[in-house]
Design goal:
With 115 residues, the protein is mostly beta strands. The chain is 0% helix and 58% strand. Strand 4 and strand 5 form a beta hairpin.
Length: 115
């Protein structure tokens, strides 16, 4: 399974970005996909996740009400709409896919929010 993130960039506080995670390869047994982020000097943390077959989604408390995770199963693509961005949202954002007993990661995309 290969995952490729895109959509990161530099945005002012209060702005919006939409991240995309495109998957390819042996994805048929995917049961969930998610977004994580890692700021400099900090551990990678959970942001949001969504069931691949179904609509169940969950979010970190820090992003609830501002970020929305969504997916297009036919395109094997997942999205993260990020609104009302804050400087503390600055991080490298990674998508992952839980496929059978394995977890796959993308290479990450940088999101920088200026104050």
């Amino acid at each position: 399974v290969q995952l490729v993130e895109s959509g990161g960039g530099l945005v002012q506080a209060g702005g919006s970005l939409r991240l995309t995670c495109a998957a390819s390869g042996e994805t048929v047994r995917t049961y969930a996909r998610g977004w994580f982020r890692q700021a400099p000097g900090k551990e990678r943390e959970f942001v949001a996740a969504i069931a691949w077959f179904g609509t169940t989604a969950r979010y970190a408390d820090s992003v609830k009400g501002r970020f929305t995770i969504s997916k297009d199963n036919a395109k094997e693509t997942m999205y993260l709409q990020m609104n009302s961005l804050k400087p503390e949202d600055t991080a490298v954002y990674y998508c992952n896919a839980e496929v059978a007993l394995d977890v796959y990661w993308g290479q990450g995309t940088q999101v920088t929010v200026s104050s």
